[in-house]
Model the fold of this input.
Amino acid sequence: MTFERNFYVILPMDIELARTFIEIVSSGSFIRASERLNVAQTTVSARIRSLEQQLGRPLFVRHKGGASLTPAGEQFLRHAPMFVQLWQRTLHQVAVPPGRRAVLTVGSEVSLAQPLLLDWVRWMRRSLPDIALRVQCTRPHTDRV
Done:
């Protein structure tokens, strides 16, 4: 949001900005967030700078140990997860591939993917061919000291 001649102009927000904000809050630092998001730390900083410009308020206080939320950041934290969830639900409902009646999203840790998840996906393809599958496998987050 920017202020021009006594009017607020609302700018569209990239969903990645909200996801990045949530990851910083979750991990406690810009550096750990960048590692979890698999992007450069400068990308995380640029996203937050853009989000802060759009909202017209600083969201974080940066310090050696990481980052903490400002009062505006606390307010945004109440809305950001709902915003991301709404976007994800919208994508899942609107982005159903042609010839499919629904999309089922499944997440798993890599350790469960072979053979358990792989066998289940094969079974789903045979049993319910009109259901599109989105499968995401991730490594568990580990805190590094």
Remarks:
- Residues 1-11 have pLDDT under 50 and may be disordered.
- The radius of gyration is 19 Å.
